[in-house]
Design a protein that fits this description.
- By secondary structure, the protein is of the alpha+beta class.
- It has 6 helices and 5 strands, in the order ααααβββαββα.
- Helix 1 (9-17) packs across helix 2 (19-27) and helix 5 (131-142) packs across helix 6.
- The model has no long low-confidence stretch (mean pLDDT 95).
Amino acid sequence: MSLPNAWTFSALEKFETCPKQYYHVRVKRDVIEPPTIHTKWGEEVHTALEHRVMHGTPLPEGMQQWEGIAAKLCALPGTKLCEYKMAVDSNFKQTAWKTAWTRGIADLVVINGKKAAVFDHKTGKRKLTEQLSLYAAYVFIHFPEVEEVTTGFIWLKERKVDKQVFKREDLHEIWQGFLPRVIKLESAYDRDSWPAKPSGLCKGWCHVKECPHWKDKA
């Protein structure tokens, strides 16, 4: 079957972490995950960096330690696109946001002729994922002239950047890495099967309390 909603990298990660949690949060929607001080701070940082890169707005107090990183981003040659929405249909073609098969919002995309870069600002612990390989695929599809995409996870706490370079010929391989994972998500919808997957999140961090594995933090 086709998925009832577009899949995103975060949705796929949530499903793989625990199908039952995914079901209650994104399918049945009877559980709301409230914002935390960490998510609120992340949103504030993303907004501040966006305004710094796009409009030259000085970073606010408490974020000025990242001026060096922001200045380097501002100095990159090319067209800068902050909070840039990219949507792809099931035929791997660019499409509208509402009709997407998969979609995502990049913190910063820089287009410079045949080369591009896509960056993601991270305020949490350093943890590499395949998120930016997916975003590189989005860039190749949205910008047919681009032949090479450099991705960068910007770890703000450590002031470090993890980079990776993708060529247009890598596009097929990128999708092949995601398709088996998406097929499992589709199968869960087909079978209406959402088994719980115990993990450390069960110790009070998950908001799905109607689960045999849930335990209070205390």
